[in-house]
Write a sequence for this structure.
């Protein structure tokens, strides 16, 4: 049972987003809403890709362009990307927070996030807020072991 719980926690941490703050306009309980520069830390409703998480991973799979040189050299990895879901659902401030170790894979991860359609934004106290989202983008070549 303990192993199953640890596996669930690891999967949750890998697949689900983490809200983070840049320190703008936060209070001791992080519940200030109303400032356009505020990036939500504690939220009631997470931002959501149209159709949900399953659709998001399908979108990534269908739209991710594996860099040709990385494919030729059989380079695999995971780029952990962070971005902000704005109040209008658009994506901004995309950055790699943990590199795959290969710049072309990292750039491909950023590119696929840039092409995403507008999201449903997060909410706090019933108001739409800017929210930070962290997303792992995996690069795996079928039948290749690293």
């Amino acid at each position: 049972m303990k192993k199953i719980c640890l596996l669930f926690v690891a999967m949750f941490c890998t697949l689900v987003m983490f809200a983070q703050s840049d320190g703008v306009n936060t209070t001791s309980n992080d519940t200030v809403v109303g400032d356009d520069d505020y990036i939500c830390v504690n939220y009631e409703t997470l931002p959501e890709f149209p159709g949900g998480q399953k659709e998001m991973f399908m979108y990534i799979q269908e739209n991710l362009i594996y860099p040709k040189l990385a494919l030729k050299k059989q380079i695999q990895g995971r780029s952990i990307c962070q971005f902000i879901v704005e109040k209008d659902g658009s994506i901004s401030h995309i950055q790699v927070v943990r590199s795959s170790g290969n710049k072309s894979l990292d750039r491909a991860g950023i590119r696929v996030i840039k092409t995403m359609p507008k999201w449903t934004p997060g909410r706090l106290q019933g108001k739409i807020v800017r929210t930070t989202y962290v997303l792992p983008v995996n690069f795996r070549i079928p039948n290749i072991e690293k």
User: Anything to note?
Assistant: The longest strand covers residues 127-139. The helical segments are 2-15, 53-63, 68-72, 103-114. The mean pLDDT is 79.
